[in-house]
Input
Amino acid sequence: MLRNNYKRLSDIDLLSLVVKDDRLAFAEIYSRYWQALYKYAYKVCPDEMLCEDMVQEVFISLYYKNRETRIVHLESYLIKAVKYK
Output
């Protein structure tokens, strides 16, 4: 599948591809949400390095725990994950 085609997929479709180790699907999720997560983290804790680490940890966790966690609304899940970091 071409990278542009991933932009057309829903979050749920992308997550189902990530479960199958599709790295381009994961890259699309990252591309969609990293900036919003960073901005949210920065509002809570205005330390650039700490915010970058938090967002990175959330995405690492998503990648490895996606198989065992049922995610219905990805954006909400990611925001909450940053909040609890």
